[in-house]
Design brief:
The protein is mostly helical and about 550 residues long. The protein has helices at about 5-30, 35-40, 45-70, 75-90, 100-125, 130-160, 165-170, 170-185, 200-215, 230-250, 265-285, 290-295, 300-330, 335-350, 360-385, 395-430, 445-450, 460-470, 475-515, 525-539. GO terms for molecular function: transmembrane transporter activity.
Amino acid sequence: MIHLTEKKKITIMIAIMVAMFFSAINQTIIGVAMPRIIAKLGGMDYYTWAITIYLLTTTVATILVGKLSDIYGRKPFILAGIGLFTIGAFLSGLSTDIFQLIAYRSITGFGAGVIMSTAFTAIGDLYLPRERARWTGLMSGIFGISSVLGPLVGGYVVDHLDWHWVFWIFLPLGIIAFMMIAFLFPKVPRREGETIDYLGSFFLTITIVALLLAFSLAGEGPGKYAWTSWEILGLFGLTIIGLAAFIVTESKVKSPVLPLSLFKNDIVTMSNMAGFLLGAGMMGVMIYAPFFIQGVKGISPSGSGYIMMPMSIVMVLATAFAGQLMTKTGKYKGLAIAGLLTTTIGIFLLHFITIDTPIYLLIIYLCIVGIGLGASMPVFSLTVQNAVPLRQLGVASASSQLFRSLGSTIGIGILGTIMSSRMASRLTEMYTGQSTGQSQLPPEQAKQFGELMNPQVLLDQPKLEQIQKQLPAEILPYAEKMIASVREVFSDALTSTFLAGAIIMLAAVVIAVFLRAVPLVSEKDHQKQPRKSEKSSGA
C-alpha cells in the first residue's frame, strides 16, 4: 500500500484513527470511573483483575494477530477487533458483580489487542519510517486526546448518570469506525507460501498466560497466593516449559508466529526491553493517580478528571512535537532518553506527595510525567519498524506491542503487590492498641463504623458521607480520626507504588542509553535506492 496516492493514504489513516480513538476513549473513560464502579460492585481486592485481564487478552491478541495480518492483510482483523471490542464493552455495562466485569473485560481486551496491532502496523504499510514518525506521533496523540476527554466524560457519567453508561456512551462510535474501515481500507491478497504456526501460537499463548497469571495472582489478600506457594511456583514452572517448547518450535517451523531471528537484531531487542519497562513504570501513574486523587484527597471522579486533564494535554503536545522532530531529523535516541528521564523525575516527585500536597503541585508533577511519556511513547515501536524489512513489519510491530503489554501487566502485578503489602502492614499497625469507640455502638452502627476502616469506602464519597451522618454525634470525632488515619495509610501505600514506578522507569533510561541509533528511512531514501541498483547493474 506504500505506492497509493497521498490522498488515498490520508483517507485510510483517518479511518484507522477513528478506530483507534474508539478503542482508546473506551479505555480512558474507565480510568477515573473504576474506583466508583468498584465501590458499587464490591471486590476492591479484585480491582487489579479488571485491568489485568484486559491487558492479558490484549497481549495475547496482539502477538497472534501480528503474523496472521502479515499473511491475510490488516483489514479483516481490524474489523474483527472493533466487533469484539464493541461486544465486550456492551456486556461490561451489564455486569452485576466484579467477576462478570472481569470476564467481559477479557473480551474487550482481546478486541483492543487486535485493533492496536493492526492499526500501528498499517501505518508501516502506508509510509516509510521517517514519514511514519509523523503519523505514529498523531496516533499516539489519539491516546492523548482520549486521555483528556475520557476522564472528563467518565467523571461526569459516574457523578450524574448510572455507571453503566461509562461503557455504553461511545458504542455508536464503534459502528462508525467499523463502517469506515469496511469501505475505505483496501483488501490485499493473501501472501503465498506462508503457513499458520498453530503449535508455536499455542506454546506462546501458554507462556504469556502462565507468566501474567503468576504476577497477577501473587501477593496478599483474597484470591492471592504467596510468591513461594506451589500455585505461583507452578505457574512460573509452566512459563519456563512453555517458553522452552516455543523456542524449539519456532526454530523448526517454516513461518514462525514470532521469528527468533528478530531478537538477533539489537535494535529490536533493546527497543522491546525499553518498551517493557516503560509499560511497567507508567502503570504507577495511570492506575494509581486517580486512586490518590479520589481516595486520599477526597475529590469527586469528575474533579479527578479535571486534575488529570493537564497531564493528558501536555502529553498530546509532546507526542506531536516528538513525531515532527523525528520526521524532520530522522533521529530518535536523544528524544527517547530525554523522555524517559523526564518521566522518571515526574513519577519520583509523586512519591513525595501527601494528603496536604496542594492540588496545583500535584498537577505540575503529573504534567512532568505527561511531557516525558508523550516524548518517549512513539519512539520504540518506530525503532522496531525501522530495523526490520517490510515483510516482517506486522510481526515486528506485534512484538513491540507484546512487550509493552507484558510490561504493563507485570507492572500492575508488582505495583499492586507493593501497595497491598504496604497497606496491610500499616493498617495492622494502626489498629493495634487503638481505641476506636466502635464497642460503644449498637450492632448496626458498629458495622457502619467498621466500614470506615476499609480504604475502599474512601472511593465512594456519597456512601462515606451517608455513614458519617448516621453515626451518633458523640462518635463522630472517633469516625473523623479513623477516616484521617485510613487516608494516611492509603496515601503511604500509593506513594510507595510511585517510588517503585520511578525505579522501573530509571531502568528504562539505562536501556535507552545503549540503544543503537540508525537514521530513519525516508521517502527520498526509498526513491534513491532503485537508481543506485540500476547504476550498479548497468556497470
